[in-house]
Amino acid sequence: MSEQNNTVAVTDAPTQPELQRARKRLDALWRRGTDFLGTQYAILGGAMSWVSERNLVSAISNAGGFGVIACGAMEPARLAEEIQATRALTDRPFGVNLITMHPQLTELVQVCLDAGVGHIVLAGGIPPGAAIKAIKDGGAKVIAFSPALVLAKRLVKMGVDALVIEGAEAGGHVGPVSLTVLAQEILPHIQSVPVFVAGGLGRGDALVSYLELGASGGQLGTRFAAAEESIAHEKFKKAFVRAAARDAVTSVQLDDRFPVIPVRALGNEGGRQFVTHQADVIRRFQSGELTREAAQLEIEHFWAGALRRAVIDGDVEQGSVMAGQSVGMVTSVQPVAQIIDDLVEQATVALVRQQRRMDTDG
Ligand SMILES: Cc1cc2nc3c(=O)[nH]c(=O)nc-3n(C[C@H](O)[C@H](O)[C@H](O)COP(=O)(O)O)c2cc1C
């Protein structure tokens, strides 16, 4: 190790040669991810219903990341239109996220294949084998979510080309386990396909730590939802800027007999009313006024259309302001390119510091 390196403090500003070396190391660390996605950076913009449409998706892809359209409840013709409109805004690769419960899943897959979409993300439960086969036969790649090692192994056997492991820190529908634990449980054991990490990522240095554990890249949602190019209502973005990590809470379930799918969102009046609503429904069930099925439906219907109300109408009090704990790291509304540049710079600087520590120790 050189004398000079020994005298550089870990906190001193990085030099150009140090940055270049660190960038090469970052490129190597996530090469499997960038090769798989066909992008400059292995950063996916996680699909977000109502938010991940042509503008945000193309902005992410144009900035060197990988945008993903959220199909949500769209009909096939509407999805075809969105893909075409996105392609008009970017010539870079992007993907489409399909919900496996969608009644027209087969047709939606075909729409993606006909439009030449290279990567299809299957979300919302274990993907049907037929959908995986159709996507692969059509020449596209399948990405699936895995909330546990046993499922990760099963999905790999079923033929998925990549996995996303999403921790409970994430915004939207979440599982119970944090990314810190999921990464340790899954990354050492899944080597045959690239694995992308999601949930709670707000900075590039954190992403580096997961790349070093074996991840091929990262997926972020919350930070992009508040980006300048996001069509989310100004009030939705302002709520993100104001919120701290602890404000992004999971939905409360009052009674085991009436399961509530956990969703992480900013606590608001709607969230408080949901608790009262459940209590009222349970009381009506207990008095015999409602059957169990009817009671469950009443609970599920409470949030119908609530994400749209928050994102599009800007009703941040009654709507569902889905956000991950990384919302605390959203401090302003920034252009997507700035968010991605910051992430890459933070990752690079983290690697410079690591190199200096090794040089000093060596
Ligand atoms: C407002 C919002 C809506 C979301 N909607 C979806 C969705 O429709 N489908 C999906 O697979 N994931 C959805 N997600 C999850 C994201 O794709 C992504 O995995 C997650 O936001 C990553 O964690 P982070 O929020 O900590 O960045 C949503 C997240 C947010 C914040």
TrEMBL record:
This is Enoyl-[acyl-carrier protein] reductase II. Pfam families: NMO. PANTHER family: 2-NITROPROPANE DIOXYGENASE (PTHR32332), 2-NITROPROPANE DIOXYGENASE-LIKE PROTEIN (PTHR32332:SF20). It comes from the Bacteria. CDD domains: NPD_like. SUPFAM superfamilies: Inosine monophosphate dehydrogenase (IMPDH). The keyword Flavoprotein applies. Its EC number is 1.3.1.9. Keywords: Flavoprotein, FMN, Oxidoreductase. The keyword Oxidoreductase applies. One of its GO terms (molecular function) is nitronate monooxygenase activity.
